[in-house]
């Protein structure tokens, strides 16, 4: 068991939250009961995940995508009211970690994805959110590896036979960061989503591009974080995957 404030303080330090200028508050976003024994993790704080956490009698819910984004309306009405009311009525703490959880070098989404795709020597590119590493494969083989690891068919742009050695990736909706991959002469850039202009940008820069799913590429950081917390504080923890095709 751990107190909610102690857990928030620990995560703040462990994930180096103060280093990030983010689009949402990181940490305890909704305050619930003080003592925490059981935590549920999931990618996004939507109603299905909250309902599942209630069914599981969770004391805390940990997510990558929480509430209170910079550009969203600040009123608490409609589905936002429903989600927040469900958490408050059930005394469930909501902890959200966004960019700090992408970047962390042990439990972060990017390092966790690299481990699942057997990418060697993974490291961030300078002070960007994009990572680089080494593989010895072809585009079609990488596509198969991704499909098996993430249980999702990726959208792939480039020649099947293209040989890949240097690879760059950034989990989530990071398609506009393809520039960082081009700058280091990567053979391929993997991210979660794709936009209309990306296939041409990739083709003209002779770089393969893989859209492997925003949700699918960001399942692993929050799971790794909660496994770490469960060992550290002797908590029960469970990951709940609410299917999302994007
Ligand atoms: Zn995301």
UniProtKB/TrEMBL annotation:
Alphabetical list of Gene3D superfamilies matching this protein: NIF3 (NGG1p interacting factor 3)-like (3.40.1390.30)
Annotated Gene Ontology cellular component terms: cytoplasm
Any Pfam family the entry gives: DUF34_NIF3
InterPro entries in the record: DUF34/NIF3, DUF34/NIF3_sf
SUPFAM superfamilies: NIF3 (NGG1p interacting factor 3)-like (SSF102705)
GO MF annotations in UniProt: metal ion binding
Binding site for a divalent metal cation 2: 64
The entry's keywords: Metal-binding
Residue sites binding a divalent metal cation 1 per the record: 65, 102, 214, 218
Membership in a protein family: Belongs to the GTP cyclohydrolase I type 2/NIF3 family.
Name used for this protein in its record: Metal-binding protein
Protein species of origin: Bathymodiolus azoricus thioautotrophic gill symbiont
Phylogenetic classification of the source organism: Bacteria, Pseudomonadati, Pseudomonadota, Gammaproteobacteria, sulfur-oxidizing symbionts
